[in-house]
Amino acid sequence: MTKTRRPVDADAWDTETGLPDDFDFWISRSYFGYRPEYNSGKSLLLIWEGESPEYGAIGGSVDSQPIIWPVGQNWQPAANGIKVIHDRGKTKFVKTSIYGRLLDKVIGKLGVDMSQYGHPTEADVWTDLGFHLIREELDFSGAQDRGILADKGGKTPHLMPTSFLGERQAEEKPQISEDVVAKLTELAKKSADVKKFQIAAHRIEGLTDEVMADILNSGSDGFYARVKAGK
Q1: pTM score of the predicted model
Q2: What is the pLDDT of residues 13-53, one digit of tens each?
Q3: What is the dihedral of CA 118, 121, 122, 128, to 10 degrees?
Q4: Of 12, 121, 134, 181, which residue has the fewest beta carbons closer than 10 angstroms?
């Protein structure tokens, strides 16, 4: 009996890492620290947590691993991970570290002027920046790499930025119209107590979340109390 053949594209048989490997990423938190899953927690890392439109939150929970950048030997975290200092007073990172590869890629190939944000020894220079990341194979087989990852042929896959998305802009808060404020003010003046005001205020259209929270504040600094006090 002849086996049935149903030819498909050859790449249908390719495998994948199972990890995010081609996505936009916005950095919401950047700090220096250690991760137990990398070299048993013995290597200092720059750690990124943030958001991706494709994958949602990355890092910041036990179910989501952050993006890590080993910084090399003889660096120690300081100020609770805000910055790092070198045992011998150095201020530059070596090119053979993965963090060094990141710096060379962002500055040399993507042309980002990182000096405007601060020093590379300060973790928060990366906060609120966005990059498109792709998992690439980093080659450490050159003579300058001094046998790094020799047991793996001098190569390892790692996320690397391929384009700079810019700085994340703060979201503008929705504005409430003067007409709505006038209606709320008149309602507060006429209402006998704060509860009646709050119930009636829900019927007014055009309220933002911030204004609604102010309406529901029954304290002396809430909307109703301020109107009654003539403020």
Answers
A1: 0.66
A2: 766 666 678 999 999 999 999 999 899 999 999 999 999 99
A3: 70
A4: 12
